[in-house]
Design brief:
By secondary structure, the protein is an all-alpha fold. It contains seven helices and no strands. It is flat.
Amino acid sequence: MFHKYKDINHPAVRAACKAARVELRRSRRNFEEKLSSNIKQDRKSFFAYSRSRMKCRSRIGPISSHSGNMTTTDAELVDSFNDHFVSVFTAEDMSSIPFLSARSASFDNFCSDVAFSQQDVLNALKKIKADTAMNSQLVFLCRSRSILCIRCSSFFGRV
């Protein structure tokens, strides 16, 4: 029985391949429609999928080092970039740093006039997007912004 289905030209094998191809296209279309309909809430998944479907990949190719040899490994590439950056960025001259005068060094009432309203804090927290937040602290800020705006505004003085 198995020998019958080893032949790729057998009608049962062709029908199974066609059914699998149709089902694969249908599932891919449903997945892409779901991603596109949910793009406002979940941008990260959409762009991750679109990046995975790209044909071209950008990669840094081999470059020549200071000795003139072409870099072949990633370690050599990193070393040649490091040598270049070390030669470009120099240390700052620490002998001529200006000193802060005593008149401008008065920090007693430096932030005494800062005040935030609840709406100011809420507007600032609304600018953080929960779907693009990479760490748990930003996600926490997004989810608890209504409580935080009350607490921060009362802490900073203006309600």
